[in-house]
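Duplicate of earlier report; Serine protease input re-posted below.
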Amino acid sequence: MQVFVGRTSPKRMDRSRRSFLASVAATAGLSGCGGVIDSAPPSTDGSAGAAANPQSATERADSSRPRLTRTDGEPVETAFTRATRERASEVGTSVRESVVVLRDGNRGGTGWFVGEGEIVTNAHVADGSRTLSVETFDGATGTGERVGYHEELQPDLALLETDLSVPPLSLGSLDDLSRGDPLVTVGHPGRLGQWILSLGRYLRVLDGIDWLLSTVPTQQGNSGGPLVTLDGDVVGVVSGATTGTAGNRPDYSRNETAYTELPEIAEQTTSVPVDTLEASLSDWR
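Output:
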């Protein structure tokens, strides 16, 4: 089974995955934990989504004007100041030292060090094999042995052990988050490259499904990546994407437009909250 982040290919989902998604899709408008996003959601400042991209002169001129988007709740500002973007770049370049590429044949995903010799990723990244290849940012390679894993992919978490040594990331607290706070992830969106930084905003936690929602852009390959604050603390593990509830999605039915490109529906990135990660780690260690 090929690993995706975003929209899931139904033909490639295993039985447990289909069962889980079916149970939540009606309420959450799921486009898939672990599917493909054809293109990253528009960056909050009009760029391609990488936090380190410079703003244009027009964007700098407009940066003082709030740009709001309604994302399943109260509007959040979609523009970022230059200072926020620069801080996101600093955090991302520090965090990426602890982020790894995980591979299992022609499959792959993102992982990150949570402790000495311990790598966190998604269960759907590690469900095909007990052993995955690991590559660190400095080019060191090795293997990771799966020692913790939720077979039903709920929550979508796994823990690997490796002989490689990389400084671990620190865990944060959901209590420190407010709606609209900037968040950063580092991962390997297959169409863009590896160790790519992206910046978005925190929205909320859906307790019933145990998802942390954000506007951080992700694509195929970001699965398992750390979602961090501008202090560099992990508050979630990237797992997929959702288009929100049906009532909040536009409906293009029965219009007379002949589309040369189909309209895109804004997506929100889903992540496993850090509280859920900590509970799993306590069981596996």
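The chain has two domains: 1-99+169-244+264-285, 100-162.

Merging into the original ticket.
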